[in-house]
Specification:
Elements lengths: L4 E7 L6 H13 L3 E7 L15 E4 L8 H15 L3 E5 L4 H10 L3 E4 L13 H10 L4 E4 L2 H9 L8 E3 L6 H4 L14 E5 L8 H9 L6 E5 L5 H11 L5 E5 L4 H7 L2 E4 L8 H8 L4 E4 L4 H4 L8 E2 L3 H13 L1 H18 L2 H12 L10
Parallel strand pairs: 1-2, 1-4, 2-3, 4-5, 5-6, 6-7, 8-9, 8-11, 9-10, 11-12, 12-13
Length: about 375
């Protein structure tokens, strides 16, 4: 029997998001090959609902609000006490722990999935220098070509330590799911699945939707700190009676099955899982041109990826609504692209090798 690897994960938050959902899928896949200690720095743990109950998982209490130096010292003491076989940190918000491991030097894997509002348009010099120094002896996973280019050209990390691993999904889960029940209404359904945070800019989607003539409905699945403001904006724009805020859902596949068009209105993304899920569900996508989005969608969908502007997004939505045949053909092309290029099996193999994990009963990765 193989002794499980003890892995310490540090997340700025363990609310439901792309990085957290990916970790849950990887942990569930490898099962008893690892035991996990998770530190959610903001205390939120909603994504634990995606973890198998059979996993060996412990959640550490979040550290108290500390100055940077005190936070690093707290992390150093925690690392010395836990003595993990592997430390995995996530994004800039966990960088104090990457700094702390320089004292004890456990093997370290850093995953970088993108940037918050402060870095959506430019890299901050202090953060660039910190990443360049702190991560120079770590393994770094990047899910997008855009991030890989930044890590190589701006952070100047050694290419041998950089690993481009696209996010993968269980495409079968999203193909042919039973649609969620929608409120009564007329017209095609435009939908999005997003955390209601500033960088997702769901306000842009509301503004684009308000510019559409003719019958159409809008469904926003997700929750977050901006919900109240977005509800007020919908009322101001006069679209509240043609849309619904559905809140958080543990079954995104059922909502995607109810949509006719998927919309992504973010200011910053790299390789959004929600987009992959929409593609696997066979949906055409109207999206802002951020991160790897244009490269992710099928060639047929690329004309509907537009600048970060409400009028441009409205134009994409309008074009897809005006030609249902084009929309359906685009959705089918997206489903093929998702199946061909974003295999969960490939993602598991790549992460398994970096994490030193092998699925029980398998001879190789």
């Amino acid at each position: 029997m193989i002794t499980p690897r003890r892995i310490l994960h540090v997340f700025p938050t363990f609310a439901v998001g792309g990085a957290q959902t990916r970790f849950a899928a990887i942990a569930n896949h490898f099962g008893a090959a690892a035991s996990h200690v998770i530190v959610p720095l903001d205390g939120r743990t909603e994504c634990r609902e995606k973890l198998s109950p059979d996993l060996d998982v412990q959640f550490a209490p979040p550290p108290p609000g500390l100055s940077t130096l005190a936070a690093i010292n707290h992390a150093r003491r925690f690392l010395a006490a836990v003595r993990p076989d592997l430390l995995i940190t996530s994004n800039w918000g966990s960088m104090d722990w990457a700094i702390a491991r320089l004292a004890t030097r456990p093997p370290h894997l850093h995953t970088e999935d993108g940037f918050g509002p402060l870095e959506q348009d430019r890299q901050l010099p202090r953060r660039v220098l910190t990443r360049r120094y702190v991560l120079r002896f770590s393994q770094v996973v990047l899910p997008s070509r855009t991030l890989l280019r930044i890590a190589t050209d701006i952070w100047r990390l050694k290419p041998a330590r950089l690993h481009y691993i696209p996010n993968g999904i269980d495409t079968a889960r999203f193909a042919g799911a039973t649609p969620a029940a929608l409120p009564p209404g007329e017209g095609p359904v435009i939908g999005t699945i997003a955390a209601l945070r500033p960088e997702k800019n769901v306000a842009r989607l509301l503004q684009a939707f308000a510019q559409l003539a003719g019958p159409a409905r809008l469904v926003i699945v997700g929750d977050g700190p901006e919900r109240r403001d977005l509800e007020a904006l919908a009322a101001t724009l006069g679209v509240a009676d043609r849309m619904v805020f559905a809140g958080h859902s543990t079954t995104p596949e059922s909502w995607l099955a109810a949509f006719d068009i998927f919309a992504l209105s973010s200011d910053t993304e790299q390789m959004p899982l929600s987009l992959l899920e929409a593609m696997a569900a066979g949906l055409p996508v109207a999206a802002t041109d951020v991160g790897d989005v244009s490269a992710m969608v099928a060639v047929e969908n690329q004309p509907f990826v537009v600048p970060r502007d409400a009028a441009a997004l409205a134009g994409s939505l309008r074009a897809l609504l005006a030609s249902p045949d084009t929309a359906r053909a685009t959705g089918r092309a997206n489903a093929v692209a998702a199946s061909d290029r974003f295999s969960q099996k490939q993602m598991f193999a790549a992460f398994g090798e970096l994490m030193g994990l092998k699925k029980e009963g398998s001879a190789s990765f």
